[in-house]
Amino acid sequence: MKKKLDAYRSRLTPGQIADGMNAAARNARRLSEDAESLVSIGRFPTAASVAALSIEEAGKVSILRELALARTDADALEVWKRYRSHTSKNIAWLLPQLAAAGARRLDDLRPLFDETSDHPFVLDNLKQLGFYTDCLGNAHWALPWEVIDEGLARMLVQIAKALAGKDQHTAREIALWMEHIGPVWKKDPAWMKQALVNWYGAMQAEGLATDGPNAMEQFIRYGVQEKGV
After folding, report:
1. Residue 124 clears pLDDT 50, i.e. is over it
2. Is the predicted pLDDT of residue 144 greater than 70, yes or no?
3. Cα 77 to chain centroid, rounded
4. Bridge partners for 134 per DSSP
5. What pLDDT was estimated at residue 104?
6. CA distance 173 to 92
7. Among 27, 24, 28, which residue's Cα sits nearest to residue 16?
8. Percentage of residues in the chain having pLDDT higher than 70
């Protein structure tokens, strides 16, 4: 038996990427439900750690979108490294905090992608502390049941549930993503924003997104509108 799994590291077809996104979303929901069950029986440290795993699984969806835009096998290899990096997959866990602080537009979410931010490492550390004992600081023994309390566990479970998306991605969705986002990927930010609007409009035209106003355009230009506004 091999000591390590034979990890795939090259490009994928739109259908394969959609399958991977759906698998990640489905597993993220499963893990969030498991974490919620653990909270209900008072297993707060384990619940927090499993919630962190759910957040990581949910983070694979956006990384696979990036894989769809890989132009070479070398580009794909870099994306796969992020796909298998714990801290690269959990950057979105700060999203509820940003929303609570008033983030409403796409530009308000830039802190999620700040490479100098330590928030991905904070969640990874919490995950480890919920599973394991460790000797930290001035020879202090960290015990999961002392580090992770009910409030923290419930907060992480709620974040995990919010980030666990639906498994309804299709090969056509990814093909449209590649068509509209690919030509401007990592280029002028204004071009990328317009490409997002165009992509969502194309999704609507083919019945892959909700009819009505272009939700992506509204989000980019005006932000999330409060109910009743």
Report:
1. yes
2. yes
3. 19
4. 142
5. 65
6. 22
7. 24
8. 87
User: What size, in residues, is the chain?
Assistant: 229
Query: Residue for token digits 């298998």?
Result: 84
How far is the C-alpha of 187 from the C-alpha of 150, rounded, in Å? Answer: 44
SS (H, E, C) the chain: CCCCCCCCCCCCCHHHHHHHHHHHHHHHHHHHHHHHHHHHCCCHHHHHHHHHHHHHHHHHHHHHHHHCCCCCHHHHHHHHHHHCCHHHHCHHHHHHHHHHCCCCCHHHHHHHHCCCCCHHHHHHHHHHHHHCCEEECCCEEECHHHHCCHHHHHHHHHHHHHHCCCCCCCHHHHHHHHHHHHHHCCCCHHHHHHHHHHHHHHHHHCCCCCCCCCHHHHHHHCCCCCCCC
pLDDT tens column, 185-228: 999 999 999 999 999 999 999 999 999 999 999 988 887 655 44
**Residue bearing the bigger pLDDT, 104 or 12:** 12
Six token digits for residue 122: 């904070």
Find where tokens 């696979």 sit: 64
| pTM of the predicted protein model | 0.87
